[in-house]
Design brief:
Blueprint: H1 8-15, H2 29-50, E1 64-68, H3 76-81, E2 85-90, H4 93-106, E3 111-114, E4 125-131, H5 140-149, E5 151-162, H6 166-179, H7 195-204, E6 208-218, E7 222-225, E8 232-238
Parallel strand pairs: 1-2, 1-4, 2-3, 4-5
Antiparallel strand pairs: 5-8, 6-7, 6-8
Length: 241
């Protein structure tokens, strides 16, 4: 498979944010609020999938993981701390430069690549993650196919993406960008995928969806798992059988 799925405009938009990606109060502040909640879901799915004790600090020891659309490494680094051999891929070279620099400062050995996933030397991974990325690519079906091609037998895939609803258009696009909660131009509502659409793409790639949950705002924590899927949701998938 050699599908080209990077949207150059999207890559340039996110690459321009690379310098302050790790600033919890900067342009990526929303991601810093989202990340702990997404990590909690990922950890729950890892524990369930591989029967790992929830108290185990290195839940991914001896396993490989790839984060596609990794930005400056906000998720890749925690995966490495869980013991995984981690690869990060992003469309923007600026993000990869920031990711390498930050990982080096943390003493983390993460392999980072800029460009198309299909351009990487072929390798499969036990865990494939891609957070808030599928809505930014030129061909979602081809992109999901590329992710599936990288998933090892017995592996686990976890995705998150905004839902295409009137509420997400109002809150994630119009309101959030107007007040500066996310940089203007971050979201194209027409590219958002409904859960059933993403499920169809995953099944079309031969995968089986094993879990789905909403990711919604919480007055106390910023975001929480469960409840409404109207704004955002997470999906876990695997090979059938």
């Amino acid at each position: 498979m050699s599908a080209a799925t990077i949207n150059p405009h999207e890559a340039a938009h996110f690459g321009a944010l690379a310098a302050d990606w790790w600033d919890p109060h900067g342009s990526s502040a929303m991601l810093h609020k989202l990340n702990p909640v997404r990590l909690a879901y990922i950890r729950d799915q890892i524990d369930a999938h591989w029967h790992v004790d929830a108290r185990e600090r290195h839940a991914l020891a001896g396993r490989s993981a790839i984060d596609v659309g990794c930005g400056a490494g906000l998720l890749a680094e925690p995966l490495a701390r869980m013991g995984a051999k981690v690869t990060g891929v992003d469309a923007a070279p600026e993000n990869i430069a920031a990711a390498r620099d930050h990982a080096g400062g943390q003493g983390l050995a993460i392999s980072y690549f800029a460009g198309e996933l299909a351009a990487l030397p072929f390798e499969t991974f036990d865990l494939v993650t891609s957070m808030e990325v599928v809505e930014h690519v030129t061909d979602p079906a081809a992109f999901i196919g590329e992710l599936a091609a990288r998933l090892a037998p017995g592996g686990l895939m976890i995705l998150s993406t905004p839902n295409r609803t009137m509420l997400s258009k109002l809150l994630l696009v119009e309101a959030a960008e107007r007040v500066g909660a996310v940089p203007r131009g971050t979201h194209d509502w027409d590219q958002f995928l409904k859960p059933q659409e993403l499920t169809k793409l995953l099944e079309g790639a031969g995968l089986e969806v094993i879990d789905r949950t909403g990711l919604s705002p919480s007055p106390a924590k910023g975001f929480k798992l469960g409840g409404s899927e109207a704004l955002n949701y997470l999906v876990a998938a695997r090979w059938p059988g």
